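Could someone model magnesium ion with this protein?
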Amino acid sequence: KRLGKARYAVYTTDMGARVATSFRLAQDLPLAAAHGELSMLYQPIVDLNSGHIVGWEALMRWRHPQQGWISPVTFIPLAEQNDLILKLGRFALTESLAQATTWSNQPSASSPPYIAINLSARHFHDPGLVPMVQEALKAYDFPPERLVIEITESVALFDVDSAERVINRLDRLGTTLSLDDFGTGYSSLSYLAKLHPKIIKIDRSFVSPPTKGPYLQRTLEAIISLCQALKIHAIAEGIETASQLGELRSLGCEFGQGFLFSSAVSASEIDDTQASVLRNWERAVSAITTAA
Ligand code: C2E
Ligand code: MG
Ligand code: MG
Ligand code: MG
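Reply:
Sure, complex below.
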């Protein structure tokens, strides 16, 4: 009230516009794949002790004909409201495997990089998931051990027992389960015992928070210790600075990804990115050593 009536009007108009945009996007999304508006970018996952790329995370992008680039933070939740998310998952899987089969290995790395795709909780309640993965692996002759499935937790697993059965079947196919955004939202401790992920991705709110107090710091340390105790590989998300890299290395975190190394790139940029990631890692490590 103190701000006056005009303020109130501005606020409602803005809200109204946002709802209208989101409604429009939700209407357009079902045809986005058919119109060739969806694509995948890939962000390297790096061994923090060698600078070598161990895997690539596939991240979806939508280029809307009128609105331009739309972030998955906006359109994935719209797709999650119905079965459209299952179609987007199929697109992410097949597109990534089709592109990944042609990638060469970084010469210095010991094994070929894996590809990590993001699947929403809804997939793990879908009887079609296991056959879909099986068919895609076969169609692209892709080794199952090089496919990592990240379970992204924007919605809760509503039936953990049925998800557990699906995950066990994926495990028998030879794929690897990774728990995304660990420490936030629905990504909880109770899932560890049920789903036994081989990988945990530590949410970037613990790695590069706007302000870092001792509480966040100790939580980060505790998550890394938890991973070590349970023999789960830890990947730190959102590494942006050399000092964050230094700290993670000293805490014994094995892997990480973030803008310090590279943002997500298109398939055609993969080869160049391998070289630049190593350079960025070397520069950061020498900065840490000089500072110490
Ligand atoms: P995510 O799976 O946790 O992916 C990491 C996000 O953090 C990506 O955003 C990535 O670009 C961003 N990021 C990476 N390094 C840094 C950094 O150093 N600093 C900062 N500030 N951000 C960094 P993106 O691509 O916008 O994706 C956002 C989220 O959308 C993903 O979070 C994931 O939950 C979802 N998503 C993306 N692609 C897909 C998909 O194909 N399927 C599903 N179901 N979800 C997807
Ligand atoms: Mg992810
Ligand atoms: Mg994540
Ligand atoms: Mg995250």
